[in-house]
Amino acid sequence: MSPISSSKPATVVIFGASGDLTQRKLVPALHTLACRQLLAPETRVVGVARTEYSDQAFREHLYDGIARHSRAESGPNAACELWSEWSNNYTYITGELSDLETYQRLGDRLEAFDREFGTRGCVLFYLAVPPAIYAMIIDRLGRADLDRGDGGWHRVVVEKPFGRDLESARELNSKIHEVFDESQVYRIDHYLGKETVQNIMSLRFANAIFEPLWNRNYIDHVQISVTEAEGVAHRAAYYEQAGVLRDMFQNHLMQLLTLTTLEPPVAFEAGVLRDEKAKVLKAVSPVTESVRGQYRRYRDEEEVASDSMTATYAAVKLWIDNWRWRGVPFYLRSGKGLSRKSTEIAIEFKDVPHLMFDIDPDKDMTPNVLSLCLQPNEGIHLQFQAKEPGAGMHTRPVALEFRYAEHFGAGALPDAYERLLLDALKGDASLFARADEIELSWSIIDPLLDRWEKGGEPPLAFYESGTRGPAEADNLLGRDGRAWHEHC
Ligand code: BG6
Question: Is 455 exposed, middle or buried (0-12, 13-18, 19+ CB in 10 A)?
Fold first, then answer.
């Protein structure tokens, strides 16, 4: 991983620059990087989209997003103050994305930047567009000779969703590879940009005390929960076609699973790390137990069919068939319209082999649980048994807590896009998904999708909004004598 240093001069080209992602995430992240002096001052940003904007109107549109979403809104690096210095670095090209002429104009602009600002042929193309046109843009970039830089690098950042099943993901990978070499491709999964997600690796591999226990000898089971209180809101049209398995499992939950279970990489280096992730994904055996749910009011949402079978909730049980994890069940769940937003990885350890105290293990003992609280109360929670003060030897569960906000200060956690954009500009692909990783995770999700969508199994379980989800998800663990943890 690169040390914290600023990027070298380059141009960032955002396709789909008039859209929500650009205004809400990309530009506020770029601008926060600029405020923190992590972007070379020569950096130029070109927005490309069909919407008509002058450079000035484009900048005003971006300023709204910065004022609302940038992290460096106040204090010495106030985003809004610095905007007057940086805004001129942003320009806009109005054009049809299918039209080769748009790319020729873009090429002229990139050449002019090379001459004027010394960006030396280094360009990061960001596809902030609907997935249906990823392949077309890549094709036009190739035809306009924008796939290679003169003396510099050209890279392409592809947003999720990456395909809607294994076959379409493979097709997209091969279309991309017709133009760009894998080393130029940066597939975003914004979960990998989260500090707390990266911390899974620090916790495991920068401490001596956890890793020796991190296997089937000591771990009873693992739970990964990503719950959301919000419904699908304005994204219903997309969500109807996607559903929770495509929206959350194939990408974010699979990434959390791999980081929790991979073997220790020998270096924090993109190739090595991604090899280990691919290895563990290959060891996941076919999912046999799953729950699919839908929150009751989903069918009343705008743009949702009144008989929609789209799942807004899923819980699955899976196994990883390798030396380390054989026999350890992994329970994964994610859903919308639930009681709260929380992302938690709970590692439940096995019971002690022998209890010397005269207590009822079922009543007086709880297992050790290490919970990684990824958001929103970022931290780590360790539950263990302690002696209750007084006569006798009664124990009770207590907790050790670490909170990011207490240790590093409120607001210390950067937005995922800040980290990912900076890494892409520096050429560090460690936190981006490689082609084989994407295909392997689709090969885990695909059979489940088939069973759900073609076979209609298991039946859709309805749940009320604002609750913990369908009872079937509790039964999934209940059958094994377990229950979901909520420690974060
Ligand atoms: C996105 C999904 O990738 O992740 C959304 O498309 C989901 O449906 C979001 O709400 C969750 O991200 P976060 O960072 O809020 O946990």
Answer: exposed
